[in-house]
Amino acid sequence: MRLRMPRGAVGVAAILLATGFMALSAGAASALEVIYDNQNTVPTVGAGTEDTFSEAFVATGSTSIGGLVEFAGTERKLTSLTAELDSFRCQQGVYFENTCNTRPGKKFTYTMTVKIYAVTGTFERGALLGEQTTTAKLPYRPSTNASCPSTGEGKGFGSNCDVGGVLAHMKFKNFTQHILLPNQAIIELTTPTPDDDVNVGLEGAYKEYNVATEEYVGVPGSGAPEVGSEPLPNEVFLNGIASSSFEGFPSGFAGYQPVFKVIAKPGPGHRGM
Q1: pTM across the whole model
Q2: Which of 30, 39, 86, 242 is buried most deeply by CB count within 10 Å?
Q3: Integer Rg of the chain from CA
Q4: Cβ(255)–Cβ(204) under 8 Å?
């Protein structure tokens, strides 16, 4: 026996089927994917302070610091980019003079720009794909701990006597441009007021004081991306030019690339997987 569906039911079924496809398409179009991530995964130590190796604008004579990255996954429309920074700024005083004095939880306003470039066949800076400027609240470096030992960078802070800055993040989102990322790109950070108070974070974090050995020991980060890869693992881009050594890294920047997390979604023409 052949069953026949009423005409109205056929129309309703078609609408429901089309609605289902539209919902699936909308879900696929809004899917977000981490396509690059080499953020430091350093354990919290002492009083909850963390630190990262970093590169300074002024110390390197740079107005921009960045790195060449290769993205994973298939999504290429940029939605957000997070950079790790190293804050040395004190609310009062100077950290290396042992006069740093900061009220817990206090922050300051800082402006930074991210620029994303295409890559040439010789791993040089190509066309500017897009840029974004954002302003965020960054933490001041905690107060000097007078009981910590003296070092060339002054006395540290916190119960682990960290002599560096304090880990901070700058997130770029709501891009005014539609930035479609190629498989590789050069990501660079600039600031209108470069100084030695805020550095660009690098892979590999440190330092805590070992009371038993009376020395500072490293707390290693991953030293490599968890997502994506590094086509030039020994070089950092300073003022747009790849440099293999500078400011305490004579053997190259291997394991010390600038730290970013990049999230994207399907761009125009994306067919899904």
Answers
A1: 0.83
A2: 86
A3: 24
A4: yes
Asked whether the beta carbons of 237 and 64 are under 8 A apart, the reply is yes
d(CA 167, CA 53) in angstroms, rounded, equals 10
Q: Judge whether residue 100 has pLDDT over 50.
A: yes
C-alpha pair distances (Å), 36 with each of 104, 116, 263? 33, 14, 7
Sheet strand arrangement including 107-119: 125-139, 107-119, 184-190, 64-70, 236-238, 241-243
Euclidean distance between CA atoms 40 and 51, whole angstroms: 9
Q: Can you give the pLDDT at residue 38?
A: 92
Given a contact cutoff of 8 angstroms between Cβ atoms, the answer to whether 223 and 72 are in contact is no
Q: What is the pLDDT of residues 235-249, one digit of tens each?
A: 999 999 998 876 666
Six-digit token pair at 92?
């009062």
CA–CA gap between residue 57 and residue 59 (Å, rounded): 6
| Token couple for 216 | 């500072």
